[in-house]
Specification:
The structure is a homodimer of 411-residue chains. With 411 residues, the first copy, chain A, is of the alpha/beta class. Chain A contains twelve helices and 18 strands. Chain A folds into two domains: 249 residues, Carbamate kinase (3-Layer(aba) Sandwich), CATH 3.40.1160.10; 143 residues, VC0802-like.
C-alpha cells in the first residue's frame, strides 16, 4: 500500500464527463490498495470568468476580495469530484483550503504556503475516505481565503504530498512526461524516465511549461517524488504504475545519470545593450538597482572589458517587460552613448547534473553552434546549465544540433 | 446613527451593473451616518447552474458536497459587492458563513441557524467597514459548509440583524411592500405601512411570497424590525427612510390596528375526502399517522358527525403531494367506502391580530361569500385568521368581496 497525491488541471476537469474520467483514475489507484488525496483545479474557463468579473467591477481591486471570489472555482470542482467518486462507491469528501488548513502568508493573490496541517486529512484518509482538495488556495494569517497565483495547484499538490508524507505526487497534465527537448521541434526527442529536482528546476524556469517552478522548489525542499503523467493517453484510466511518465526525484534515485539531460529554450527574451557607459565603480548598481526596484526581472548580464574609459553592458529581460525597462533607464538618466534593443533573440540552455563533474560541456555547445554558423550574443552558466542567447531564427537549428551533439537522439 | 442590515436577492445582484446599483443603496445608508451590514444572494442563474452540475453528476448526491458547491455562488457576489463599494470609496469586506461564523445544525441542504457569533462583524463595522455577508450559508457542527435551503438569505439577514443588534433589517425584493391582498387581482388593494409578526407569519405561510416563513419566525423570536422594500423603484438609490415599504414589527409599535390586515390565498391546495369511514376511536390516527410518517404536510382537517356508525373525513394537502398521499392511504388500506379528490380548490384566509378581541369576523366572511353564492367546502380557524376552502373559479370574486367587506379598499 502506498499513499498517493494526484493532481488534475483545469482541462482534465473541464466538464462533468471529464470529472467522471478523473474519478476513474482515482479509482484505479484505490483498486491498487493505495490511499489517495486528489488536488483539483477549477473547471477550465471558470477562473477566467471570475477574474473577468473582478476586473469589470474595478481594474484595481482588493486582492483579498479577488481571492475570496476566484478560490470558489476549485471548491466547486472538489465537491463535484467527491460526488463522482461516491457515485462509483468510493468514500470521498471535499476539502477547501481553509478546512485543512493550508496556511499561507498574507500576500493575497500570490500567496506562498507556510504550512499544511496534515493531521485532519491523514486521519480522514486512514478512515478510508479519499481527500478531494481544492487546489490553488489557502488560509491567510488574517483568517481570509488566499490564492497562490496561477498554476498554484501544482504547488498545493506537492505541499500536500509533503504534509501527508505521500510516497508519490502524480501531476496529470497535457504532456506525457519530460522530454530531452521540445518534441514538436526535434523529432528525435526522447522522454526521460527520471530527472533530478535540480534539472527540472532549471528546465521549469527556462521555459519548459510542464511544472510550475515553485512546485519543483517545494518538491526539492521536502524531497517529494513527483511524477508527470498525461491525463489524455488512455480512456481506460489505468493506474499511474502502468503509465510511462517522468519521475522527478532525488539524484541518488537515478542510477544512470546522463551528462546532459535536456535542451531547453525560451523565446520570451529581449536583449538590451548600453554602449559607451563610463567605466567607474557603481555604474552597474546605477543600472540594475532601478530595474530591480521596478520589479523587472533581469536574467543574463554581461559587461565587456573597458577601453577608453567606457564599456558596454548587455542584459536580457522578459519581452513583455522591455518597454518598462527602457522607461526606467530613461527616467534615471543612465549615462551612456546609446541604448540598443533586440527582441529577435532566444535563450537556449543545456541542462544536466552530470556537468558538475565533467569538463567540456560548454565547449561541446559552442562548437556545435559554431559548426552551424550560429553566432552567440551572450553566455551565462550555472553549476548545472549553460545558456546562450542566439538569434531567434536559429532556434530549431540550434536545438537539433545540440540534441545530436550531446547524444540525446532516440535510437 | 443606526445599525442597519440590508438584504438583496439574486435578481438585484444579477450582473455587474446591478451589483453597482446595490452598492449605491448601501452608500445611501452610509451617507445617513448608519453602520451597515449587507447580505447577498448568488447572482441570478448561478445557483441553478451549480445545482444542475450536482444533479448531472448524480441525481442522489451527498448533501455536504452539494452545500460546499452551491454556497460558492453567494461567496462570489459578496466579494464583488465589496469591490464595488471600495470602488466608491467605502471601506468594505466580504464574509463567508464560516468566517463569521454562522453556526447551523447538521441538516445539510436545509440547515437551521443555531447561532451567529456577532463579535467579529460588530468589531469590523465599528472600525468603519461595511460587512458584506454571503447569505444562505453557514458552518455545520462537522466543520463543513452548510446551506439553509432556498430563500435562506432572508433568514441569514434577520438572524444577522439579531446577532449584531441592528435597529432594522431591510429586505429588498421585487415587490414594494406587503399589501392587504394581491394587487394583481384586487385593484383596490392597499400597501400596509406596518404589519405584526404574527400577521406576516400567517400571510407568509398562506402563500404570500414576500418573505420566507422561517425568516419571519426568526424575526418574531428575536424582535427584529424587518422592512420590506422594492429594489426596483428608483434608479437614484435613495436611503430606505425615503422609500415607502412595509415594516414588520411588534404589535405594540402599531398604533392604529386594523381588525383585519389582509386577505391571503393559496392555490396549492388539494382536497381529499374519505367517505363511509367506520367511526371508532383511533380511526383519525390510522389515517394521519401514515401521512405524517411519509412527511406529507396535512393542512385543514374536518370530520363530520357520525351517522349509521360511519363518518366522512376531509383534509387538504399540497397539490404536488396529492399523488403520494393517495398512495400512502392505499398502502395502509384505510377502511372507507370511497376516496374522492378535488384539485380545483383554493384556500382564502382573512388575517388580523384585531380579531382576537372582536367577535363576528368569521361571520362577516361567511356572509360576504354567501352573498356572492360561493359555497364553502372546509373551514378552519386560528387565533388571528379564518380560512375557507372554496372552488378555485371563485378566487377573484371572493378576494374582492372580502376586501370590500372588511373595509380594506383604498379610498
Amino acid at each position: 500500500m502506498a499513499r498517493i497525491v494526484q493532481k488534475f488541471g483545469g482541462t482534465s476537469v473541464g466538464d462533468i464527463a471529464r470529472i467522471r474520467n478523473v474519478a476513474k483514475r482515482v479509482k484505479a489507484e484505490i483498486d491498487q490498495g493505495n490511499e489517495v488525496a486528489v488536488v483539483v483545479s477549477a473547471m477550465s474557463g471558470v477562473t477566467n470568468q471570475l477574474v473577468a468579473y473582478c476586473n469589470e467591477m474595478a481594474p484595481l481591486h482588493d486582492a483579498r476580495e479577488y481571492d475570496a471570489i476566484v478560490a470558489t472555482g476549485e471548491q466547486v470542482t472538489s465537491g463535484l469530484l467527491a460526488i463522482a467518486l461516491q457515485e462509483m462507491g468510493i468514500s470521498a469528501r471535499s476539502w477547501a483550503g481553509w478546512q485543512i488548513p493550508i496556511i499561507t502568508d498574507d500576500a493575497h493573490g500570490k500567496a506562498r504556503i507556510a504550512e499544511i496541517k496534515g493531521d485532519a486529512i491523514i486521519a480522514s484518509m486512514k478512515q478510508g475516505h479519499v481527500a478531494v482538495v481544492a487546489g490553488f488556495q489557502g488560509l491567510g494569517p488574517d483568517g481570509r481565503v488566499s490564492t497562490l497565483g496561477r498554476g498554484g495547484s501544482d504547488t498545493t499538490a506537492v505541499a500536500l504530498a509533503a504534509a501527508v508524507k505521500a510516497d508519490r505526487c502524480d501531476i496529470y497534465t497535457d504532456v506525457d512526461g519530460v522530454y530531452t527537448t521540445d518534441p514538436r521541434i526535434v523529432k528525435t526527442a526522447r522522454k526521460l524516465n527520471k530527472i533530478t529536482y535540480e534539472e527540472m528546476l532549471e528546465s521549469a524556469s527556462l521555459g519548459a511549461k510542464v511544472l510550475q517552478t515553485r512546485s519543483v522548489e517545494m518538491a526539492m525542499k521536502h524531497r517529494v517524488r513527483v511524477q508527470v503523467l498525461s491525463s489524455f493517453t488512455d480512456e481506460n484510466a489505468p493506474p499511474a504504475s502502468a503509465l510511462p511518465g517522468t519521475l522527478v526525484c532525488d539524484e541518488e534515485e537515478i542510477v544512470e545519470k546522463e551528462l546532459v539531460s535536456g535542451i531547453a529554450y525560451s523565446r520570451d527574451e529581449a536583449k538590451v545593450t548600453l554602449t559607451g557607459v563610463s567605466d567607474r565603480p557603481g555604474i552597474a548598481a546605477g543600472v540594475f538597482g532601478p530595474l530591480s526596484e521596478a520589479n523587472i526581472n533581469v536574467d543574463m548580464i554581461v559587461q565587456n572589458t573597458s577601453h577608453d574609459g567606457t564599456t558596454d553592458i548587455t542584459f536580457t529581460c522578459s519581452r513583455t517587460e522591455l518597454d518598462r525597462a527602457l522607461k526606467v533607464l530613461k527616467d534615471v538618466k543612465v549615462e551612456c552613448k546609446e541604448i540598443a534593443t533586440d527582441k529577435s533573440v532566444v535563450k537556449v540552455s543545456v541542462i544536466g547534473v552530470g556537468m558538475r563533474s565533467h569538463a567540456g560541456v560548454a565547449q561541446t555547445m559552442f562548437k556545435a553552434l559554431a559548426d552551424k554558423g550560429i553566432n552567440i550574443h551572450v553566455i551565462s552558466t550555472s553549476e548545472i546549465k549553460v545558456s546562450v542567447l542566439i538569434g531567434e531564427e536559429y532556434t530549431e537549428l540550434a536545438l537539433r544540433a545540440l540534441h545530436t551533439a550531446y547524444g540525446l537522439d532516440a535510437a
